[in-house]
Amino acid sequence: MNAGRPSVVAQERLTLSVLSLLFLVSAGACRGAEQPADSLSLVVEWGLDFAYHEEYEDAMEMFRQAERFDPGGPASPFFQAGLLEMRMVDYGTDDGEEEFMALIGETIRRASGQLKDDPENAWSHFFLGSAYGYRATHQVRKARYLSAFRDGMRAIGSLGRAVECDSTLYDAYLGLGGYHYLKTKLARFLTWLPFVPDDRERGMEEVRLAMERGKYARIAAQDALIWFLVEEQRHEEAVALVSDLVAAYPDSRTFAWSSARVMEAKEDWQRAEQAWRRLLELILEDEKASSSLNLVTCRYGLAEALYELERYDETLEECRAVLILARNPDPDKRFAQIIEQAWDLLRRTEEKIAEIGTGEKLVGER
After folding, report:
1. What is the top-level taxon of the source organism (predicted)?
2. Which of 268, 196, 202, 205 is nearest to 239 (CA)?
């Protein structure tokens, strides 16, 4: 077991959650240059609050209402698209993918149209870059890495242009920082690329700037920074930040995932067990969130924590629960990976039980 470091499957799940929040909320301050700021901002804030609480229908209604205050602008389709991607990641499904792609296309069309009339409009550059960034996020989830890289390059160009036009648009640094940090990870899948500089520290500082000085992006930046800190093995800092988020949004599955992974990476197994159990409760409370992929990921994480706590009988129970779920397979490749990991953990647990003579050996033959 690779103690203290999230598995590839774990990193992928957490990365997607972070990216979904990253581009959804980083555009929170955007609006057409001549639109009533207070009205649009209020609708956006309500929508984002609903999104944080995973009340997706209410959030979607708020983002649809944004069209009233930014008619023909990119705000409404962008936030709708962002919410769909966040929901797809949360539920572990592709339901809504076609609508998501159409809304992203509409956002790009509207933002590009605004820039033809006003090439220096920071908000239009911001929406355009965030839309490309969101599509890149989706392409990563679908393992379309070349397409993701291309959209990522478009995103960074537009977001960079946005801060050139308005350096006080601090929320934009969330998208920029996320790109600068994550491009190093993405580049490993594109081995034909020339040398890619390591901009992780730069990216973390930009995300921290968004967390400390942004208006709408603070929470999303905080969640992104948590993951980056875990990657850098700065666990104490990550624990402090994730504890704040869980306290503020105790019923959020998104932040519960972050909490479980932070405690796992820190090897604080008692708190990891508590976090996984809380996440399991939250998943089971929402039928749509109770996908086979979410359940096996959560139960396997719990099983790992129990194994490290040397509670082997309970580990076997969770491994069995994972393997029972294998009867209803999910097409996502991560599902099969977790099932294989569960078989391996089950065998190792059986060996431990046999060594110490505390229980009967469970037959683990398939």
Report:
1. Bacteria
2. 268
pLDDT at 356 over 60: yes
Q: Which structure tokens are listed for 307?
A: 């194994």
H or E segment to which residue 123 belongs: helix 122-141
pTM of the model: 0.81
* Each residue's pLDDT tens digit, 132-174: 988 988 998 888 888 988 998 899 999 999 999 999 998 889 9
Q: Taking the CB of residue 329, how many other CB atoms lie within 10 A of it? A: 13
Q: Is the dihedral of CA 113, 114, 118, 122 positive or negative?
A: negative
Which tokens sit at 90?
């949360």
Q: State the SS3 of 41-110.
A: HHHHHHHHHHHHCCCHHHHHHHHHHHHHHCCCCCHHHHHHHHHHHHHHHHHCCCCCHHHHHHHHHHHHHH
Question: For residues 364 and 347, is the Cβ–Cβ distance under 8 A?
Answer: yes
The string over 261-270, giving b where at least 16 C-beta atoms fall within 10 Å of a residue's C-beta and e elsewhere, is bbbbbbebbe
d(C-alpha 69, C-alpha 289), whole Å: 32
